[in-house]
Amino acid sequence: MAASIAVALLAAFLTPLIVYWLTTRTRKPLPANLPPGSLGLPVIGQSLGLLRAMRSNTGERWLRDWVDRYGPVSKLSLFGAPTVFVTGPAANKLVFGSDALAPKQPRCLPLILGRRNILELVGDDYRRVRGAMMQFLKPDMLRRYVGTIDAEVTRHLDAEWAGRRAVTVLPLMKLLTFDIIATLLFGLERGAVRERLAAAFADMLEGMWSVPLDLPFTAFRKSLRASARARRVLEATLREKRARLERGESSPANDLVSCLASLRVDEGGGGKQLLTDEEIVDNAMVVLVAGHDTSSVLMTFMIRHLAGDPATLSAMVQEHEEIAKNKADGEALTWEDLHSMRLTWRVALETLRMIPPIFGSFRRALEDIELDGYVIPKGWQVFWASSVTHMDPGIFKDPEKFDPSRFEGQAPPYSFVAFGGGQRLCAGIEFARVETLVTMHHLVRRFRWRLCSKENTFVRDPMPSPLHGLPIELEHMGVASPCKTAC
Known about the structure:
The chain has helices spanning about 1-25, 45-55, 60-70, 90-95, 110-115, 125-135, 140, 145-160, 170-185, 190-205, 220-245, 255-260, 275-305, 310-325, 335-340, 340-355, 385-390, 430-445, 485, and strands spanning about 75-80, 80-85, 100-105, 165-170, 360-365, 370, 375, 380-385, 445-450, 460, 465, 470-475. By secondary structure, the protein is an alpha+beta fold. The chain folds into two domains: about 1-110 and about 360-415, CATH 1.10.630.10; about 115-340 and about 425-485, CATH 1.10.630.10.
C-alpha cells in the first residue's frame, strides 16, 4: 500500500515535468536578448522560494534581492510559467498603459467573480466597462454622497466602538466598508436581503485565493457556491433597480447598480444597454471584493501606525478639529471639508506606499515586447510588484522612514502605483479617498488607542493582515456622536 502511494506521488510530481519538457522542445527559438536571470528547475522555478518568503512576510525583501542581482528587468519562472519580473517607473508605465499586455489573474478569480469583470478585460471592452463605472464613481457624483458615508461611519462607531474598552480593528473596518458598499453602491437597505449578501460574501472570501479544485469539502467549492448565492442577490437587485427606473420611481444617481442599469449605447437612452447584465453583476462582485478589502486594510494600517507616531496623530487631530469647529453640532461632513484633510490623505498615501494592499499581479504578453533593450516573448508572464518601486531609495529618499511630507508635491509619474496608473488607474480611487477621510475624521476626534500586542507584525494572505487583526485598547475622548443629533 505504501509503495503504491509513493509511486502515485512520484508520478504526480514527474508528469508535469515531462509535459513541460516535451512542450518546450517544440516551441520556436527564444530571442537572444532575453532579460538576465534564471528559470530554475522546470515547473518549480522560483515559486517555492517566493511563496516561502511571502509566508514569512519577507516577500518584498526577496524581490529586492532578486533586483539587486539581476536588475529591474529579469527572467524567472513562477507557478509553472516563464516570467519576466519588471520594476521601476518605465516598467510600471508599460504594465498599466500597454494593450500588448493582458491581465492574468489566478484561475480561481474569474470563476468566482465572473469572466466579464474589469480585471479580466482588455482593449475596448475594458475601456467601455471602466467608462461606465466612472459615471457613478467620478468626483462630481461622489460629492453628493459624502453625507451618506458620514452617516454610515457615525452609525458604525456608535454601534461597534462606543462604550468599549478594546476592539479588534481589521474585522470592524471590513464590516464598515461592507456597509458603505451595500448602502451607497448597491442601494440595499438593512434587512434580510443585505444579510444574505453579507453571509454569502463572507463564505466566498474564504476560498478566493484557494487552489481551484472543484471537489467536495474544498475551500474553492465552498467559495463557488457562495459566489452563486451572492450573484443571485445581485441579479435580483439589478432586476428590481431596472424595474424602478422604468416606472420612474428612482434615479440613476441613487446607486452604482441603478447607474449601470440605466446606461445605453446612444446618448438618447433608447438604444441597447451599454453593459450586459452579466457585466453589471460581474463588476458589482469586483467592487464588493476590492472596495471591501483594500480600504479596510488601508484604514487598519493607518490606525496601527498612528498608535506609535504621536506627532503625526497630533497633527491630524489638529487638522480635524479645525474642520469641526466650523460646523454645527450634528452637521455632516461635506465635499469641501474633505479638501481640508490634506495631511490625513498624505498619511494614507504614505501608508499605501510602505504597505500596499496588493502585493503584485501578473500580465500576459500578447506579442513580443521590448523593454530596456530586452525582449519579453509573446505568451510569457509579466510580474510586477509595487513595493519594489515604492521602496527604491533612488525614487523615495529614506524609503524605510514614514514621511507623509513626501506627498506634498507630485510623485514622479508611475513611481507611486498603489492605485495602478494610466488607463489601469483604479476606478474607485475617489470612493476610497472619501470613505478613508470621513472615517479617520471621526476616529481621531472620538478615540485614542494603544496596541494590545507588543509584537507589531503582519502577514500577507494575500492581503496584509496585522497580528490577531490588530486588537487595540480604546480611550474615549468625549466628543459627542453627530448621529445623536442628525439621526
